[in-house]
């Protein structure tokens, strides 16, 4: 991949434009046709891609605007799941927790349409597609069929692997497996890593893994065992304390460093991002560092999400300028 030093990317999700949310409601009430809703989804993907382009993101996504939720979307499309009512996750946020009631099997492509469309609108050959990983899928579902969660996760891994193969076939150059739950259980983490590796087995694309909020100590000893090129983490919210932990465990892959707190509406300044990157460079070699927000930007107001991306890119550009002046990067 031909990218500048400190390549910038996003984790995946981006706020849905208000008009898309309105269009979804209209369609639910039978006042907008399926075709019109599809057109609205496509227009939203174009809009998000354009926001990424204007902000200067090197490896963009379509903002996952066509997906409601990161577990539900896949559970609805794989064989073996059924849905009961919504469960409360926190405060007033609900999600429809799926339940596994028979053997999980790969039915049909889930994101191939999304990849094909993204490919047709992208401003760079290096766009990214995200998919929820087997452990997080298993951890966030009820199990009414398998002996244990491990068995469930490995069948999920097979299905996800089949899908990723199709995504690469459809032209996805960068695949990110999302595993926000991977460090939820110290007893399960060892086989959870194997399940992730099973899901990316034999895949010929740049592979990333996303891990965010939680206790990184649980997963730190296994980080080098993941068969991916890069792992990106939420770091800003922890004031970069996990860097020391990763270093202690001899972390040697590319690191996607979260430098934007997606839980705060306060927009980081480019200077703050610049300083944070300088700290990162004390821990890891320049060629192994990528820059991203801590997590998806979905829950922020769109203008704030956009401003945060702009600051992130500007902070990176300040470091790039400095590198150029010092002759370290001669481009
Ligand atoms: Zn995340």
Automatic annotation (TrEMBL):
GO BP: any one term: methionine biosynthetic process
CDD domains in the cross-refs: CIMS_C_terminal_like
UniProt keyword list: Amino-acid biosynthesis, Metal-binding, Methionine biosynthesis, Methyltransferase, Transferase, Zinc
Residue numbers binding Zn(2+): 210, 212, 295
All copies of domain Cobalamin-independent methionine synthase MetE C-terminal/archaeal, residue ranges: 6-314
Pathway note: Amino-acid biosynthesis; L-methionine biosynthesis via de novo pathway
InterPro entries linked to this entry: Met_Synth_C/arc, MetE_arc, UROD/MetE-like_sf
One of the record's GO molecular function terms: zinc ion binding
Pfam families attached to this UniProt entry: Meth_synt_2
Cofactor: Zn(2+)
Record's cofactor remark: Binds 1 zinc ion per subunit.
Gene3D superfamilies xref list: 3.20.20.210
Function: Catalyzes the transfer of a methyl group to L-homocysteine resulting in methionine formation. The physiological methyl donor is unknown.
HAMAP family xref list: MetE
Family from the record: Belongs to the archaeal MetE family.
Annotated protein name in UniProt: Methionine synthase
Lineage: Archaea, Thermoproteota, Thermoprotei, Sulfolobales, Sulfolobaceae
């Amino acid at each position: 991949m031909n990218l500048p030093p400190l390549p910038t990317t996003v984790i995946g999700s981006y706020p849905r434009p208000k008009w898309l949310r309105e269009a979804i409601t209209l369609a639910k009430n039978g006042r907008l046709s399926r075709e019109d809703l599809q057109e609205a989804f496509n227009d939203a993907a174009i809009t998000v891609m354009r926001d990424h382009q204007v902000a200067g993101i090197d490896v963009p996504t379509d903002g996952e605007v066509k997906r409601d939720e990161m577990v539900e979307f896949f559970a609805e499309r794989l064989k073996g799941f059924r849905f009961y009512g919504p469960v409360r996750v926190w405060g007033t946020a609900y999600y429809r927790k799926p339940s596994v009631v028979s053997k999980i099997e790969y039915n049909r492509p889930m994101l191939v349409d999304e990849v094909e469309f993204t490919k047709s609108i992208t401003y760079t050959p290096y766009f990214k597609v995200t998919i929820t990983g087997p452990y997080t899928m298993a951890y966030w579902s009820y199990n009414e069929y398998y002996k244990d969660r491990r068995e469930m996760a490995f069948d999920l891994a097979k299905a996800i692997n089949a899908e990723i193969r199709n995504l690469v076939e459809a032209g996805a150059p960068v695949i990110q497996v999302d595993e926000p739950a991977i460090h939820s259980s110290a007893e399960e983490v060892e086989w959870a890593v194997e399940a992730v590796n099973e899901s990316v087995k034999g895949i010929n694309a740049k592979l990333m893994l996303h891990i965010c909020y939680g206790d990184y100590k649980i997963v730190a000893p296994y980080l080098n065992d993941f068969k991916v090129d890069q792992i990106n983490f939420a770091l800003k919210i922890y004031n970069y304390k996990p860097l020391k932990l990763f270093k202690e465990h001899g972390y040697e892959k590319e690191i996607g460093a979260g430098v934007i707190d997606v839980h705060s509406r306060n927009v980081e300044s480019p200077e703050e991002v610049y300083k944070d990157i300088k700290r990162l460079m004390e821990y890891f070699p320049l060629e192994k560092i990528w820059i991203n927000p801590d997590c998806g930007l979905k829950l922020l107001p769109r203008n704030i999400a956009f401003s945060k991306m702009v600051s992130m890119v500007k902070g990176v550009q300040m470091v790039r300028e400095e590198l150029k002046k010092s002759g370290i990067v001669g481009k």
